[in-house]
Amino acid sequence: MADDRKPPLLDCTSPGGADARTVLASQKAWAKFLIEPSHEKSFTLDMTGKVTIDMILLPPGKYYRGDGDAARIITLKNPLWVGKYEVTQQQYEAVMGTNPSYFKRAGVDAALYPVETVSHDDATRFATRASQNTGAEFRLLREAEWEYACRAGTRTKFYNGDSNDTLGEIAHYYKKNDSKGPEKVGGKKPNAFGLYDMAGNCWEWCSDWYADYDAITTDPRGPAFGSIRVNRGGSWGHSAQCCGAAYRHNDTPTRTSGGISLRLVRVPMWK
């Protein structure tokens, strides 16, 4: 692919961020560049080919990570396929042969609910096994990728604005969720990228070790070593604050909880 055909980065750094029309145009331009029929696609996860995962193409871009005076421009140079939803119980069981979820619901389709009660180690093994099954490269999102995916062009506290009053339109979270556990994936409004449940429902493991942000602003990733891993997005059992796009959270890699899940990335072959 010739560099002169490469679309520009999605620039989300203007005071108002990038609007939904601009975001979609960038997704479509990058899908065309990658010779994909659409910026939405299903990929096989298991060796039988019967279980798939819906993914959304995220264009490379630059955005403000964090909020207030601490916000810094981050540049991500590579396109990514990102899971449209949190990984479901059905998808996890098809790959790993087991469903560890605490919130199994008798008579309810496991394809509809996120897998939870998975440690970071479990999540990493799941991505590795899916890669081995398919020959593709699946992994967890890096923290910088996660915030970019969550914001989807926005610079507000949540991806639908700054008000807690409207957070319930996009998120299952404490005081807005009258069930005592996660809800069906995709039950709320998506962000401009077309991703669901980036706020609330379940925390999502990221690949990074947790540490203070360093000075790297292009394709940053966490330190090589650490004792706690990043998870992002808030959950059904946490407050509105935890659902903020910039809110950082962490847990030990072995911790499991009915409020922790994962979302996959598939790395395009494009270079």
TrEMBL record:
Annotated GO MF terms: formylglycine-generating oxidase activity
InterPro entries per the UniProt record, alphabetical: CTDL_fold (IPR016187), Sulfatase_Mod_Factor_Kinase (IPR051043), SUMF_dom (IPR005532), SUMF_sf (IPR042095)
Domain Sulfatase-modifying factor enzyme-like: start-end pairs: 54-266
Recorded superkingdom: Bacteria
Gene3D superfamilies recorded: paralog of FGE (formylglycine-generating enzyme)
SUPFAM superfamilies according to UniProt: C-type lectin-like
Pfam families given in the database record: FGE-sulfatase
Protein name: Sulfatase-modifying factor enzyme-like domain-containing protein
Organism expressing this protein natively: Fimbriiglobus ruber
Classification of source organism: Bacteria, Pseudomonadati, Planctomycetota, Planctomycetia, Gemmatales
